[in-house]
Amino acid sequence: MGDKKSADKAPAPLGAEVLDRLFVTVQGRKGADPETSYTAKLYSRGTAKIAQKVGEEAVEAILEAVRGDKAALAAESADLLYHLLVLWADLGLDPAEVWTKLAQREGTSGIDEKKSRKA
């Protein structure tokens, strides 16, 4: 049996909620010491560097998908989502705005949604 402390603490539920929890953590790293926090280090390098990291992680995820390595794709996808959350936080974009956009598109075909966008 585990110690009482770990037995009292239920594990956080798995699912999309983890992104909201991670976003809170990422926001909390703004202004932290770049020597002790990778997230703070990203912020200190600026938006362009953060965006570059998002692109790099996207490419790495694509490569793992093409290789068919699900475990590696899961790991690279986690890296991609983390860096995307850092980018959103850097620009002041709340994930709820993205979730709202996704909810608005639910039930709409991708083809119709693309046609509705303005050029």
Secondary structure: helix percent: over 70%
The total count of helices amounts to: 7
Shape: globular
N- to C-terminal distance: 61 Å
Order of helices and strands: HHHHHHH
* Radius of gyration from CA coordinates: 18 Å
Query: How many distinct beta strands?
Result: 0
Structural class: mainly alpha
Determine the mean pLDDT: 88
Low-confidence stretches: 1-6
Helices and strands, with pairings:
Elements: H1 4-8, H2 17-28, H3 38-45, H4 47-67, H5 70-91, H6 95-105, H7 110-116
Helix pairs in contact: 2-5, 4-5
Overview of this structure, please?
The chain is an all-alpha fold. 72% of the residues lie in helices and 0% in strands. The chain has helices at residues 4-8, 17-28, 38-45, 47-67, 70-91, 95-105, 110-116. The longest helix is centred in the C-terminal third of the chain and has 22 residues, at 70-91.
